[in-house]
């Protein structure tokens, strides 16, 4: 859950929020970070937030740095460097919810998929979910993705958010008690000859020191704004050689240790993303997916729903009440007046369309529908 300092940041973002038309979803709960069910979503993009598509480079340098102490394990691979690129990576940066435990400025779900993977084959939200999908090759999850409230969800990362008044946001975490999911396969020389064999490589497990390998924890860095995102994972890796025994493929013990660097560069997927506010100290989103107020979103149609234009405003107020607490409800009155004043300075005629002038992005801008402020009580 967001810390107390987020209250001011989120309240300030209300000046950015405008009431919008939304298709009716009788099961929609605005106090949670789940999206309405009036749009088709997969296990990858079920939450309010920003999603970035891009490529990932993985560099593995054998027996460098502290890993030089174990070069005797496989002399054939000393001074070897493996570089791999994956063209189907997705980074989801989503709004925390009431079920998240502890300080959590953002939920980060980073996933790597097979090259040329067809994302339309992913199922809709389900109990099994993202982490258990058989096509997933590698994943980093700051908290476990959830598709319904069933108790509390603990944080896997200990985020540090650099002080700022808006995007770009910069966060970092040392992975002290968390292992990334999955790894990478490469064909390299064996340790016992010149034969080419299959190797499996994994980021350094956090408890590797218990096996006699004294290596530092992995470090994750993240930067993002309304257009792009960069993620890097730096540390050490371990490797196993695949061994054929009859019809079975087995793994040896750890034979390779080295330094690793994973680098992701992504571009905003506007089709699946809500609008990131540009003036808040904590990442905050204007809910647009499923609300018919962003022409770039999935499910958008040119004719807005007849449902009250104040619905998105109500959803925002409800979510804030959960995060901040009822004792601060009186602050919403002044925030509502701020919204009215903001709207009075721009188009405020019911049904009038205009560009999102308050966004700083130079990318193609969505269209927002401005409500009649008098309709929000």
Describe this structure in words.
The protein is mainly β. It has 2 domains: 6-43 and 276-375, no CATH class; 49-270, no CATH class. Helix content is 10%, strand content 31%. The chain has 3 helices and 17 strands. It has helices at residues 6-13, 311-324, 330-344; strands at 49-62, 81-94, 107-112, 138-141, 160-161, 169-175, 181-182, 184-189, 196-203, 218-224, 228-245, 248-251, 256-268, 275-276, 285-286, 353-355, 367-369. Strands 1, 2, 3, 4, 5, 6, 7, 8, 9, 10, 11, 12 and 13 form a 13-stranded antiparallel sheet that branches. It has a two-stranded antiparallel ribbon with strand order 14-15. A hairpin with a 3-residue loop joins strand 10 and strand 11 (228-245). The protein is elongated. Mean pLDDT is 79; it is low at 1-23, 305-309 and 322-377.
Helix percent reads under 10%
How many strand elements?
A: 17
Radius of gyration computed on alpha carbons: 23 Å
Main sheet properties: 13 strands, antiparallel
Tell the overall outline.
elongated
Secondary-structure-based class equals mainly beta
Oligomer: single chain
Mean pLDDT comes to: 79
Counting DSSP H or I runs of 4 or more residues, the number of helices is 3
Terminal residue distance: 28 Å
N-to-C SSE string, H for helix and E for strand:
HEEEEEEEEEEEEEEEHHEE
Contiguous uncertain segments of 5+ residues: 1-23, 305-309, 322-377
Domain count: the total is 2
The percent range for strand residues is: 25-35%
């Amino acid at each position: 859950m967001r810390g107390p300092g987020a209250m001011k940041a989120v309240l300030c973002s209300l000046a950015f929020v405008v009431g919008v038309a939304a298709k009716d979803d009788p099961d929609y709960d605005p106090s949670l970070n789940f999206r309405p069910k009036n749009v088709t979503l997969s296990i990858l993009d079920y939450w309010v937030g920003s999603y970035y598509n891009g490529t990932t480079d993985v560099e593995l340098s054998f027996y460098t740095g502290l890993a030089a102490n174990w070069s005797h394990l496989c002399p054939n691979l000393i001074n070897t460097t493996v570089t791999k690129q994956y063209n189907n990576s997705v980074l989801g940066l989503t709004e925390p919810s009431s079920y998240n435990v502890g300080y959590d400025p953002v939920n980060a779900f980073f996933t790597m998929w097979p090259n040329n993977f067809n994302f339309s084959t992913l199922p809709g939200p389900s109990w099994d979910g993202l982490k258990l999908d058989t096509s997933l090759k590698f994943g980093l999850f700051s908290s476990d993705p959830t598709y319904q409230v069933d108790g509390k969800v603990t944080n896997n990362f200990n985020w540090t958010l650099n002080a700022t008044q808006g995007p770009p946001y910069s966060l970092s975490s040392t992975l002290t008690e968390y292992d990334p999911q999955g790894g990478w396969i490469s064909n390299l020389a064996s340790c016992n000859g010149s034969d080419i064999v299959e190797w499996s490589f994994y980021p350094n497990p956090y408890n590797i020191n218990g096996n006699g390998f004294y290596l530092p924890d992995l470090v994750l860095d993240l930067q993002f704004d309304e257009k792009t995102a960069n993620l890097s994972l730096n540390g050490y890796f371990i490797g196993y050689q695949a061994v054929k025994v009859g019809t079975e493929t087995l793994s040896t013990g750890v034979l390779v240790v080295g330094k690793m660097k994973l680098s992701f560069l992504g571009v905003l997927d506007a089709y699946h993303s809500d609008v990131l506010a540009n003036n808040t100290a904590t990442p905050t989103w204007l809910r647009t997916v499923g609300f018919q107020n962003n022409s770039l979103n999935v499910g958008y149609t040119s004719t807005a729903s007849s449902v009250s234009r104040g619905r998105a405003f109500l959803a925002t107020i409800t979510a804030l009440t959960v995060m901040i607490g009822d004792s601060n409800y009186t602050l919403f009155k002044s925030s509502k007046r701020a919204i009215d004043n903001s709207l009075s300075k721009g188009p405020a005629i019911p049904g009038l369309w205009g560009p999102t002038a308050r966004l700083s992005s130079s990318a193609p801008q969505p269209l927002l529908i401005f409500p009649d402020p008098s309709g929000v009580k």
